[in-house]
Write a structure and sequence with these properties.
Elements (H helix, E strand, L loop, with lengths): L1 H31 L6 H12 L2 H12 L4 H18 L3 H16 L3 E2 L2 E2 L2 H10 L3 H8 L3 H24 L5 H7 L5 H29 L10 H9 L11 H11 L4 H4 L2 E3 L8 E7 L3 E6 L5 H18 L6 H5 L3 H12 L5 H7 L4 H9 L1 H24 L5 H13 L14 H4 L4 H22 L6 H12 L7 H7 L5
Parallel strand pairs: 3-5
Antiparallel strand pairs: 1-2, 4-5
Bound molecules: zinc ion.
């Protein structure tokens, strides 16, 4: 009996792995070659594979039986995937795909002209003329029009599907697979709201003072954060990206070339970078759209962090290779992203003066606060939107904007352009928690090894404690190693 269930689970995982590889290959072609790919068909195939009765039966039998910890953990992960799959109706998958296409096709309109979305972001970060920033901030009218009804419908459909399965709401269902409850997440948000309040208020006050503003408006926050916290783009030309990465990897006692991670730096994608774990650990690819600037370099390191995490996974079973909580995976990537902020990295790879290096280091608390609070706002709004899809979502968003960002949008359509939760449900919290975790990991590495850069032991620690056994241990168990109790 024991052998039978173990063998069945193994076969199920192999099938899921093959489906994921086929999907990954196609999504990669979608982004890299702009191929016409039916992503929804892949999602339905994966869902249908999970909903084969044998899958749930096998997981239940393993979880109810007397099996070893590893098999139990695998059954738990696959069974969580089954639960998520049950909530994915054709209608939901198709609507999400429709929204995805709209987000790609519909461009922001600035002064009557369509502009790429990354240009809008760039204006919000860099443009000194406040009125241009304001117009760029308000440039998503067309997107709002397209999403206004669809967003409400998708929130409602997801919530109905979750309730039909006996969950209180969609967030409860989504978090169950990450060993987290809605109440715990709200506690975490409260905790980090209060931790980041003072630095955030200082940032706003400094912005008002430095740029002679009456008060901070929504179109000022990115600009103020970038100007006060980041180093000048001139210190981060895109071309130092890959050579610096090769140096860092060498300092960790490894060789970038022989890692066999495929890096395509010539991609025309709507993001700074993407990592595809097509088959763990052998086929990992990164697409980059690398431009100048500190944030772009951080994206390169972040994506590389995803790749290294999967590359050094020694787990053999599919569920253990990819089954860790979304925020733990993001934290592993962000741990690499944060290397770019280290004074030792800045000294080595940029021509920054010692004054500049310490200015960036001193501003770290404030930029952390600004980023984390933005994700907390989006996540809090999303949690409420599922239960209140037909209600006053503009007021919901404004209440959270006031709480986390210090202003109200006073703009009825603002909520409808929040497309991220529609495409990546319950994912904003991953970026929030990843930033908390990355800092704890760096702190631990410093205490144990001194400066982690150029310290192979620091890298070996990451491999041994975080990467190698995949999702065998939960995020709670893994974070206990670095003394972090979220
Ligand atoms: Zn990521």
């Amino acid at each position: 009996m024991v052998k039978d269930k173990a063998r069945t689970l193994k076969e199920i995982e192999q099938k899921l792995e093959a489906l994921q590889a086929a999907e990954g290959e196609d999504v990669f072609r979608l982004y890299y070659e702009h191929a016409d790919v039916d992503v929804a068909a892949h999602e339905k195939r994966r869902r249908d594979a999970l909903l084969t009765p044998e899958v749930a039966e096998t997981c239940e039998a393993v979880l109810a039986g007397d099996y070893d910890a590893s098999l139990n953990r695998r059954a738990k992960i696959v069974s969580d995937w089954v639960t998520l799959a049950r909530a994915e109706t054709d209608e939901i998958i198709d609507l999400k795909e429709e929204i995805q296409k709209i987000v790609i096709d519909v461009k922001p309109t600035l002064d009557g002209e369509e502009i790429p979305r990354h240009l809008k972001t760039n204006i919000l970060l860099k443009e000194t003329d406040r009125d241009v920033r304001r117009r760029a901030f308000r440039s998503e009218g067309k997107l709002r029009g397209e999403l206004f009804k669809r967003a409400r419908r998708l929130y409602r459909l997801r919530n109905d599907a979750a309730q039909a399965l006996g969950y209180e709401d969609y967030p409860s269902l989504a978090l169950a697979g990450e060993d987290l409850t809605v109440a715990e997440l709200k506690d975490l948000i409260n905790k980090y709201e209060s931790v980041t309040r003072q630095p955030y208020e200082e940032l706003l006050a400094e912005g008002v003072d430095r740029f002679q503003l009456d008060k901070i408006e929504p179109w000022d926050t990115y600009y103020v954060t970038d100007r006060l916290c980041a180093a000048d783009d001139k210190y981060f030309p895109g071309e130092i990206g890959l050579p610096s990465l090769a140096e860092v990897v060498k300092g960790f006692g490894r060789d970038l070339e022989s890692l066999g991670i495929a890096l395509h730096a010539d991609a025309d994608i709507p993001y700074g970078g993407l990592c595809f774990a097509i088959r763990v650990p052998d086929d990992i690819r990164i697409l980059l759209n690398l431009k100048d600037g500190m944030s772009d370099l951080r994206v390169l390191y972040h994506e590389f962090g995803h790749a290294v995490h999967r590359k050094f996974t020694a787990a053999e079973d599919f569920s253990l290779k990819v089954g860790d909580a979304g925020f733990f995976a993001e934290a592993m990537a962000d741990t690499w992203g944060l290397l770019v902020n280290r004074p030792a990295w800045l000294r080595k790879f940029t021509g920054m003066s010692e004054d500049e290096v310490s200015r960036v280091a001193d501003a770290e608390e404030k930029s952390f606060a600004a980023r984390v609070r933005r994700f907390m706002m989006t996540q809090s709004f999303e949690i409420d939107a599922y239960r209140n899809a037909g209600g006053d979502l503009a007021a919901t968003l404004d209440d959270y904007a006031e709480r986390f960002l210090g202003y109200r949008y006073k703009d009825d359509g603002m909520w409808a352009e929040q497309y991220f939760p529609l495409l990546y449900p319950m994912y904003s919290k991953n970026y929030m928690l990843a930033r908390v975790i990355q800092r704890a990991v760096h702190g631990y590495l410093e205490r144990e090894y001194g400066e982690p850069l150029d310290e192979p032991k620091a890298f070996e620690f990451l491999v041994d404690r975080f990467y190698a056994d995949g999702a065998l241990r939960t995020w709670k168990e893994k974070l206990a190693v670095v003394g972090l109790d979220l």
